[in-house]
Amino acid sequence: MSTADDLMPQHLSIHRENAVTAPSSGRPPRHKRDREATRAALLAAARVHFGREGYAGANVRGIAQDVGVDASLVFRYFGSKRKLFEEASAEDAQEAGAVLAGPPGQLPYRLLEMILREERPESVGDHPFIAMLRSAGDETIRGQLHDQVCDTYIAGLRALVEGPDADLRAELFSAWLLGISVVRTVVRSDVLAAATLPEVAPYFDQVAAALLGGGGSADDRRGGPDR
């Protein structure tokens, strides 16, 4: 069932951009450049709001207000609040593809790097995955979260497990990584939120060896001694 925030309110006036003839330089018309810039700004603001407040808590008017435009533009450019959320979260799917594209044996360490990377700027908001966690009360988004975690990350880790109970061990390892992410970005604990990759890596190696098994040195799993 759609909420009032999912559909364009009828009383909002449609913002009309002024058409401008394309300059002779061959660059896109000014109104097109303005549209693209506004659309990008709305996506950036949406990532901040969804990351902080989740899908249900985020308000289309608040997102538009941050950009300085009428809320009707959100519906004009994206169609609905849900479509805006999906597009704002697409960055996470792209990052997942990049993480999975590397050498399989280094996947656990790449996931740790993704979690422990430098704090995102305040203007960018939390990682899109955190926005999905905060929005898990929505059935559709919960399904998307399940698919991403189970069909993407856990499936990749399961292929690395040596020995019995591969499914359980892969999910335990995933739960550990997910817990690190939540404590750092949602709970924002004093110690773990400030921990660096070199500080966490030795303990990570022990957990990875216990749950996933696998031969080779820690340097092999990390892709080299300097990582």
From TrEMBL:
Keywords: DNA-binding, Transcription, Transcription regulation
Positions of the HTH tetR-type domain: 36-96
Annotated region described as Disordered, given as residue ranges: 1-35
Database matches in InterPro entries: Homeodomain-like_sf, HTH-type_TetR-like_transc_reg, HTH_TetR, Tet_transcr_reg_TetR-rel_C_sf, TetR_C_16
PROSITE patterns for the chain: HTH_TETR_2 (PS50977)
Presence of the UniProt keyword Membrane in the record: no
Protein name: TetR/AcrR family transcriptional regulator
